[in-house]
Specification:
Number of helices of chain A: 3
Oligomer: homodimer
CATH superfamily of one domain in chain A: S-adenosylmethionine decarboxylase
Structural class of chain A: alpha+beta
CATH topology of one domain in chain A: S-adenosylmethionine decarboxylase
Mean pLDDT of chain A: 91
Amino acid sequence: METTGRHLLCEYHGCDAQILGDPARLEALLQQAAAAAGATVVHSVTHRFAALGVSGVLLLEESHLSIHTWPERGYAAVDFYTCGACQPQRAHQVMLDGLRAERAEVLVVDRGGPEGIRVRPGAQNPNPILK
Amino acid sequence: METTGRHLLCEYHGCDAQILGDPARLEALLQQAAAAAGATVVHSVTHRFAALGVSGVLLLEESHLSIHTWPERGYAAVDFYTCGACQPQRAHQVMLDGLRAERAEVLVVDRGGPEGIRVRPGAQNPNPILK
């Protein structure tokens, strides 16, 4: 199996607080994002914290997709780590729309390749993507 | 709740193939790593793939800890993403020892802070840490 993977570290700001606090809605969104990226889900876990936020992870055939939310701040931190032929940028677009984010930052990291872990040129911080 | 977090993206090479293929052992190691970092586990999921590798995620009060392994390549990709007062570098040391890695690379990324997502200076790629 090929070890090469692409990891998108995404930060979403100005999101809909109600969506960020709803585990079922977030899980549905993660599933939709995984499907858009062409990934296959093998496990799904979500957890709602007493202090408002939600965490969720989809284990994928191709690695994982995770979210941590802070509804009171309108903020979510999301990771799309996929190996093989997936297109994680499509998952990013689904999350951007689904969370109704006003602003996003994305750091793209190549992992498991012959040159080791690498931040993509042009994806150095900050890398705001305005919707 | 504070959104600021520290994310260690770790790559371990030259690991013990038997350990990398053993879901129970990997889960125990993740739990040990989380404890060393001072994190609290709320959910644990592991999955063994037909094609040898194992994936596992611990959802933490403080975000997550994930692993993806390629036993046939002696390679594991691990993420420690923690908010608050955790010490993820301690989790890294537990994994480095527990996987019997010959070599590791670590990228340290600050997330959720006022300046946005940031790769730590001095932690730019490649950043090999020889055991």
